[in-house]
Amino acid sequence: MMRIFGTAICVLWAAATAAQEMPAAPALPAPQKDGGKPLMQALALRRSGRSFKEKKLAPQTLSNLLWAARGVNRPESGKLTAPTAKNWQEIDLYAATAEGLYRYDAKAHRLEPVFAGDIRAATGQQPFVKTAPVCLVYVADHARMDGAPASTRDFYSTVDTGFISQNVYLFCASEGLATVVLGYVDKPALEKTMRLRPDQKVILSQPVGYPKD
Ligand SMILES: Cc1cc2nc3c(=O)[nH]c(=O)nc-3n(C[C@H](O)[C@H](O)[C@H](O)COP(=O)(O)O)c2cc1C
């Protein structure tokens, strides 16, 4: 009897711990696919910014940002706003916030919680990273790259990340947000912090927020 009781307590404790570890997913409204600045104005405004207000992004802004970055723009084929080599779609977009880490599911246009806790400081080695309300992390999933040679996987995943990053830059320029892409990242440490599999590799990160000045 005592043994059954003890087991039940353990199961309940494990369930409670798991529930605590999962942050609520921020609801994403449908992305707004019209509006924004004309492309040539966004290009004229594109720049890196490294100083952020702590203010969180509005849900609509976060939704639009993720869709602009690598959302599905052709539902009939599932293809994305960013080109990807062989349409592997191997770059996953993670978002680190004060509440937790999330993975963007482009097909469902949803943020899937990964775990609770603030890992923003680990997404770069410059002090400003932890002040941005959202730190995007670009992660290549080598399992999706059809057994290509390592040099091909590294090259394509780096190039594909560049397209996503530029989409983010242009969206931020259009919306008056600050952003900077970061290569100065302790990648092995971040991969560990994000609890990635060995065949998932951090390529770059990119904090986003309202500019401080
Ligand atoms: C691949 C790549 C890595 C970068 N890494 C960093 C970085 O770790 N930290 C940083 O502050 N800026 C980083 N930058 C931003 C550049 O410093 C910035 O783009 C450059 O100074 C030109 O400024 P602009 O983006 O305003 O034109 C990186 C840019 C690229 C393309």
List the helices and strands and how they pair.
Blueprint: H1 2-21, H2 39-45, H3 59-70, E1 72-74, E2 79-80, E3 91-96, E4 100-105, E5 110-116, E6 134-141, H4 150-175, E7 178-179, H5 187-193, E8 200-209
The protein binds flavin mononucleotide (FMN).
Flavin mononucleotide binds next to loops.
Largest sheet: 6 strands, antiparallel
CATH structural architecture: 3-Layer(aba) Sandwich
Number of helices: 5
Q: What is the N-to-C succession of helices and strands?
A: HHHEEEEEEHEHE
What is the gyration radius calculated from CA atoms?
19 Å
Task: Kindly state the percentage of residues in helix.
Answer: 25-40%
CATH superfamily: NADH Oxidase
Give the quaternary arrangement of the chains: single chain
| CATH class membership | Alpha Beta
- What's the overall average pLDDT, rounded? 92
Distinct small molecules bound, one entry per kind: flavin mononucleotide
Structural class: alpha+beta
First-last Cα distance? 65 Å
Search tags:
globular; two-stranded antiparallel sheet; 34% helix; alpha+beta; 213 residues
Protein model, in words:
The structure is a single chain. The chain is α+β, with helices and mostly antiparallel strands and 213 residues long. The protein has a single domain (24-209), classed as NADH Oxidase. 34% of the residues lie in helices and 21% in strands. It is built from five helices and eight strands; from the N terminus they run H-H-H-E-E-E-E-E-E-H-E-H-E. It has helices at 2-21, 39-45, 59-70, 150-175, 187-193; strands at residues 72-74, 79-80, 91-96, 100-105, 110-116, 134-141, 178-179, 200-209. It has a six-stranded antiparallel sheet with strand order 5-4-3-6-8-7, with helices on both faces. The chain has a two-stranded antiparallel sheet with strand order 1-2. A hairpin with a 3-residue loop joins strand 3 (91-96) and strand 4. Helix 2 crosses helix 4 and helix 3 (59-70) packs antiparallel against helix 4 (150-175). It is globular, with a radius of gyration of 19 Å. The N and C termini lie far apart (65 Å). It binds flavin mononucleotide. Flavin mononucleotide (FMN) binds at residues 47-48, 50, 126, 180-184.
